[in-house]
Specification:
The radius of gyration is 62 Å and the shape is rod-shaped. About 5% of the residues have low confidence. It has a domain of about 35 residues. It contains four helices and no strands. About 70% of the residues lie in helices and about 0% in strands. The chain has about 170 residues and is mainly alpha-helical.
Length: about 170
Amino acid sequence: MVEPTPNPQPGPPMAGMPPGAQQPPPEEKKGGLFGKKEPEQIGPDINQAMMEVGAIGRRLRILEERYNNLRKKSQVTDQHLLNHTKKTVSDFKDTNEDIMEVKRSIEDIKEKMILIIKELKITAKKEEIQVLQKYIQFWEPVNFITRNEVEKMIEDAFEARHYDEK
């Protein structure tokens, strides 16, 4: 069943309006900045207010939990960042020590190379060796006789002569 809509503002129609036409709403009184409000606007339903306060409390608890979770995540992230930073600094120090050791090794190698080069400059050249080789072949030192051999030969000869005379 359809209920007839009540006329929001009952009363006689205004002058100049056709019968059955609705009247325009009356002008609201403006009380200024501190004007009185009607009693209907002052106190909303208490149950409605309790429900709204409960909903606000639930939302506040949810927001607090989210804030605590974010704070915990932030602390964990900060701790991981600190650990990673410490590890990175330690690795950096180790790398620097390795680099310094390599530099010292390179300096030692350079010093030894310079020493080898100096020694090689002092050694005889190929042409000098060839000249010495020609002299040695010319003299034939392999055919030289030693002092001991000469003394033995003299003794043998002396004994042979002394033996022959007898």
